[in-house]
């Protein structure tokens, strides 16, 4: 099977066209700005005077952080958050390490204005209300020991451009190899 010179030109043309097309397409896609809310779950020891082991208190806070993550997935919590922050916000939470949680707030349809932390403030307000209600009902002393809000400008990843170029380049190469293989088979069967 011989890879002809014209195939190199076709691959080069596909590479250039897919690179230019991908760059133009993804250039107009704006990466979302984000508000990050970092919280650490702790326990107010005055609420639990019988607990003396700091290890047990830390483990309890670590386990309770799963509950906090669960609250953010619950539709009622999200509805309260959107009622305070406004419509169009998306919320995603993840455990960073042990009782440290990181919540990412983005806005669908439009970007969050530069250094606007109001959505993060609204999130923390709703989280505090939920936490205070939980503590009152269960007679626990869980608190948000650390709270920190950050604003991050959206950074457009270059991965979609590279992935698109590689996809079209690979697909074209595969089609050319298949065409050449079929042509070679047809010639060899007609010669026999």
Topology:
Blueprint: H1 5-27, E1 34-43, H2 54-73, H3 75-85, E2 89-97, E3 100-107, H4 118-138, E4 142-152, H5 159-191
Antiparallel strand pairs: 1-3, 1-4, 2-3
- Strand runs, count: 4
What is the helical fraction, as a range of percent? 55-70%
| End-to-end C-alpha gap | 17 Å
Q: Average pLDDT, to the nearest integer?
A: 82
In spatial order, strands of the major sheet run 2-3-1-4
Judging from the principal axes of the Cα atoms, what is the shape? elongated
Structural class: alpha+beta
Radius of gyration: 28 Å
Please tally the helical runs, counting DSSP H or I stretches of 4 or more residues: 5
Fraction of residues in β-strands:
15-25%
Detail the poorly predicted runs: none
In sequence order, what are the helices and strands, one letter per element? HEHHEEHEH
Profile the largest sheet. 4 strands, antiparallel
């Amino acid at each position: 099977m011989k890879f002809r010179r014209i195939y190199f030109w076709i691959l080069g043309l596909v590479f250039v066209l897919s690179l230019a097309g991908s760059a133009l397409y993804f250039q107009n896609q704006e990466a979302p700005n984000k508000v990050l809310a970092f919280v650490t779950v702790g326990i107010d020891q005055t609420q639990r005077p019988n607990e003396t082991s700091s290890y047990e208190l830390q483990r309890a806070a670590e386990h309770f952080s799963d509950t906090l993550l669960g609250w953010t997935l619950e539709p009622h919590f999200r509805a309260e958050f959107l009622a305070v922050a406004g419509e169009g916000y998306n919320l995603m939470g993840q455990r960073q390490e042990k009782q440290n949680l990181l919540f990412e707030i983005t806005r669908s349809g439009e970007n969050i204005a530069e250094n606007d932390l109001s959505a993060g403030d609204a999130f923390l307000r709703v989280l505090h209300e939920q936490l205070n209600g939980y503590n009152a009902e269960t007679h626990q002393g869980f608190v948000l020991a650390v709270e920190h809000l950050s604003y991050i400008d959206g950074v457009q990843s270059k991965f979609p451009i590279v992935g698109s170029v590689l996809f079209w380049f690979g697909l074209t190469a595969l089609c050319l190899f298949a065409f050449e293989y079929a042509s070679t088979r047809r010639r060899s069967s007609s010669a026999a």
